[in-house]
Write a structure and sequence with these properties.
By secondary structure, the protein is mainly α. Among the domains are: about 20-175, Alpha Horseshoe (Serine Threonine Protein Phosphatase 5, Tetratricopeptide repeat), CATH 1.25.40; about 410-485. About 70% of the residues lie in helices and about 0% in strands. It is built from 39 helices and two strands. The protein has a two-stranded antiparallel ribbon. Strand 1 (about 670-675) and strand 2 (about 680-685) form a beta hairpin. Helix 3 (about 60-70) packs parallel to helix 5 (about 90-100) and helix 33 packs antiparallel against helix 34. The protein is globular, with a radius of gyration of 33 Å. Keywords: Repeat.
């Protein structure tokens, strides 16, 4: 048996992280050179430059290098490049598998595939055909069927190119087709023979063969056994036809197999996969016997379809019936509790899992961490995380996400640093989870580092990560880099989320002209504007005071694109009209809303009333807002300021007294500032900084300078000759 040994990297030169844009240009240049290289000498020169710039661990470029050497007949060099990678990813495995098969190295290709599976990775739909060719050449029937089983689980058997490769492999082995030729000459009354054919047909994806057997059995008045029905139901699951599922279910009942637990379970699983919860629950309730698998199928179906309460009720019924839960019970139940954010249920379920011994799997720990974070119980989540001895990248990502979601961005950033120092390689999900933390603390340098890090790992080809980086750069004020990332994507590759993100970024930065240009470009592309698009456009109008343009977009949204305005859209329109002093029009818009306005709408209306403090609309808006948010001190203070502007000092005193008696205080504002990689927070009248005296001295000087500039401007307006 051949053995592949991974060599240590030859060069250990520390890599200096270049600025992302510069590094991107260099990567693109090297990639173009690889594509155009057609001589061994030139390729080796480019390879040397590739190592010199520290890209010898870059998966994208290394996969191109593997292909280039193979195309020039140097498969040995391709293998050396592959073995030099410390932690090869899916792209690299696919590249070496393709080239090994091309050169007839079937045994070595299957060995690489085994290494790949051991790392919980699988080839893509374009590489699987090469694996099947290796199986055919190596005459390894059992191994080929094992791989077939894996790809069925992964759903790759639906791709035409994979299905064709499968057919070619089985044709070479002359297994299934020869069996059917014998079947056509033989009576189906040999039930064992027909059942084995349907089983093999199910495994090989030959649905036509299964139906052929089934039809002949019915024609010869032979009652199919439970195994035949199960194989047929498995095939129907891939057809996504609820009508066909019901027909086979009826035939099973007529065939007096309705009491067979195996058939019952297969039908229930089929209804669940086809998202027919009503039929699934009806069948579940009629089943005289229910084992753990049956309960798990129904519980998972409710969780998957977003019905957490029904999932938990069924879980309670399962416990009362005396059926012991397992891993496949715990995961959907924990997910449902996270959706409901029910702390008591979470603690009880956690204790139940511990009693049943279902907590041995890392997937359960990860789900518990996510559940406790959703329930705002970070201490419990942290305890589980610290207790775990086999943390996966998902564990780290779940904990980081929990800290970010609960407003502990600095802690999330520290945990991310610890993750890297512990040698855990972040995936794109972890990066997307940590980016909002960097936005919250204003750590632009950390964002740049993460961008470079993701490029080094070859993750920037993922649209979701690119969009997250775009949004992050925009929120950190680096709109130029956000625009650069946007323009680097091809027009056909820009999805709706990317268009909306860029429009919203320019809207928040007050660049209304760029917003409108992007909107016009978007309409000419394949993406259709949605509610988020128009929210960004209306925000741009609010920030720029473009009343008529805002009204035009609001009308176009409903009449041209059929998008129903949400609370946010009405809030933008109220804000736009209110800032322009059109209080009456804003009030009329609120009164005619087709949905009941909430605090997001009443808030801007009350703020707009500051310019018209005597208006009765202010008190009306304040009354609605206070009813919705009775513990929000900001609403009372805003109303107090409106009373003060109107000269109603008795009302002001009442408001202040009410706030004191209720113990309500406005949450002080907080600003973060990053200097030399260190983030510092500042609050109103904050004296905790060690150089607070110097800071306030400089702040006082700035105020004096601003005052002088303002006075000079006023003098110029009064006497232009000065």
């Amino acid at each position: 048996m051949l053995h592949l040994q991974r060599s240590k990297p030859i060069i250990h030169t520390p890599i200096l992280l270049n600025f992302p844009a510069t590094q991107s240009r260099l990567l693109n240049t090297l990639s173009l050179l690889f594509n155009r290289c057609n001589s061994i000498q030139h390729l080796q020169q480019i390879h040397a430059r590739f190592i010199l710039h520290g890209f010898h661990q870059n998966p994208t470029l290394s996969s191109k290098l593997i292909d280039c050497y193979a195309n020039l007949g140097l498969l040995k060099h391709s293998l050396q490049v592959f073995c030099s990678i410390i932690d090869p990813n899916l792209t690299l495995f696919n590249a070496i598998l393709r080239n090994l098969t091309r050169y007839g190295e079937s045994e070595r290709a299957l060995l690489v595939y085994q290494q790949m599976v051991a790392k919980s990775m699988h080839p893509d739909e374009e590489t699987y055909p090469f694996i099947f060719r290796s199986c055919s050449s190596f005459s390894n029937v059992g191994f080929g069927r094992t791989i077939h089983g894996y790809l069925v689980k992964l759903g790759f058997d639906s791709f035409d190119v994979v299905a064709t490769a499968l057919a070619e492999m089985y044709e070479k082995w002359i297994a299934f087709e020869n069996a059917h030729q014998l079947f056509d000459k033989r009576s189906v009354k040999d039930l064992g023979w027909s059942s084995s054919l349907t089983t093999e047909g199910s495994q090989n994806g030959n649905g036509e063969g299964i139906f052929r057997v089934f039809v002949r059995m019915r024609a010869e008045q032979l009652v199919p056994d439970s195994l035949t029905f199960v194989n047929l139901l498995r095939f129907i699951a891939g057809l996504n036809s609820i009508q066909l599922a019901k027909i086979v279910h009826c035939i099973a009942i007529v065939s007096k197999l309705s009491g067979d637990l195996l058939v019952y379970t297969a039908v229930l699983s089929l209804y669940s996969k086809l998202r027919s919860l009503v039929d699934a629950r009806r069948l579940f309730d009629k089943m005289p016997e229910k084992d753990r698998v049956v309960w798990n199928i129904m519980i998972a179906a409710y969780a998957r379809e977003g019905k957490p309460r029904e999932c938990l009720e069924l879980f309670k019924s399962m416990a009362r019936s005396g059926i012991r839960s397992d891993l496949f019970t715990a995961l959907p139940v924990i997910s449902s509790i996270a959706q409901l954010k029910c702390v008591d249920w979470g603690k009880q379920t956690h204790a139940h899992i511990l009693r049943n011994g279902s907590d041995s799997q890392v997937s359960v720990h990860n789900s518990l961490i996510d559940m406790y974070c959703e329930c705002k119980m970070l201490d419990s989540a942290c305890n589980i995380f610290n207790w775990m001895t086999d943390k996966s990248v998902i564990s780290w990502s779940a904990m980081i996400k929990g800290y970010v979601k609960n407003g502990q961005s600095l802690t999330a950033s520290s945990l991310f640093s610890k993750m890297k120092s512990d040698g855990i390689q972040a995936d794109f999900v972890t990066m997307i989870n940590i980016l909002p933390a960097f936005v919250h603390i204003g750590a632009l340098e950390n964002v740049k580092y993460l961008h470079g890090y993701s490029m080094k790992l070859g993750l920037t080809s993922l649209p979701s990560l690119n969009t997250a980086l775009l949004i992050t750069y925009a929120k950190c004020g680096y709109i130029e880099m956000a625009q650069r990332l946007f323009e680097e994507e091809r027009i056909d590759d820009k999805d709706l989320i990317m268009w909306n993100s860029m429009i919203s970024a320019h809207a928040n930065h007050g660049d209304w002209s760029q917003c409108f240009k992007l909107y016009n470009r978007m309409k000419c592309s394949n993406s259709k504007p949605d509610q988020v698009t128009f929210l960004g456009l209306l925000t741009a109008c609010v920030n720029s005071g473009l009343i008529e343009k805002g009204k035009e977009f609001f009308k176009e949204m409903t009449e041209s694109y059929g998008c129903l305005p949400s609370q946010e859209h009405f809030a933008c329109m109220v804000n736009l009209l209110g800032r322009a002093g059109l209080i009456s029009e804003a009030g009329e818009l609120v009164r005619n809303m087709p949905i009941k306005p909430d605090a997001r709408v009443w808030g801007p209306l009350l703020s707009a009333c500051k310019m018209h403090p005597g208006s009765k609309l202010a008190e009306f808006a304040a009354e609605k807002l206070i009813d919705m948010e009775p513990k929000n001190a900001g609403n009372y203070i805003l109303l107090s300021n409106i009373y003060a502007a109107a000269g109603k000092w008795e009302e002001v005193a009442k408001m202040r007294s009410f706030l004191r008696n209720k113990g309500l205080k406005k949450t002080p504002g907080c600003s973060s500032l990053e200097i030399n990689g260190r983030v510092t927070e500042f609050r109103v009248a904050d004296q905790t900084h060690p150089r607070a005296e110097d800071i306030y001295t400089i702040l006082g000087n700035l105020e004096l300078e601003i005052k002088e500039v303002r006075e000079k401007s006023l003098d110029t307006l009064v006497n232009p000759l000065l």
